[in-house]
Predict the 3D structure of the following.
Amino acid sequence: MLWSDPENKPPKELRDTQEMLRRLGVLMALAMVLAMLVIGVR
């Protein structure tokens, strides 16, 4: 890769969307674990 190559940065909207999806994925994983615990207790 040459020093003159442009930086490969995604636009701000794309980065925001990726961040939101990442948070949503973490939230979904936590919700699944909580659901498993609730089902397991019953």
Summary: The chain has a mean pLDDT of 88.
